[in-house]
Known about the structure:
Elements: H1 5-30, H2 37-48, H3 54-61, H4 65-77, E1 81-86, E2 89-97, H5 99-118, H6 127-155
Antiparallel strand pairs: 1-2
Amino acid sequence: MARKPQQQSIILGSMGRVFLSWRRYLQRHVAKAGCSIQQYHVLRQLRRRDCLRPSDIAAMLFCDRPTASVVIHNLRAAGWVSVMPDPANGKQRQVRITEEGVRILTAAEALLSEVRAAFDPISCLTDDEARQLSGLLRKMEEHVVRRDSQVENSEEGGEIERDS
């Protein structure tokens, strides 16, 4: 069922403002540790895994490869990651967290833990409202991801279906 463009604009605009406001709030606090929110997310993933490729980082940050390259370059310049050729495929690069990266990540995590304890953005919702919102957002996410996959497949020669 097609929705009015105004309704779509209101819903997606509100989602965007909530996301960006929360991200800006977290960024102000994580900056006290000396890193950006993007750098924080990359460092967290690198600590969990042995290494990541630049394409993995781009996908994780929902950005293009050149933007991910800038993030990686800045992390490397700060001494928080190392970048080495992949032993299995010399054309690929492996990004790994350094001891200094772990130190910065630990400081950022401590700051964000305090921030999250001091302010919960969903505290204005009842438990039922939070569950309902979570379910609705998950449903929208699945719908959008499914459509994105269809578009990607159509660019590779398949057909794209109309929304029903």
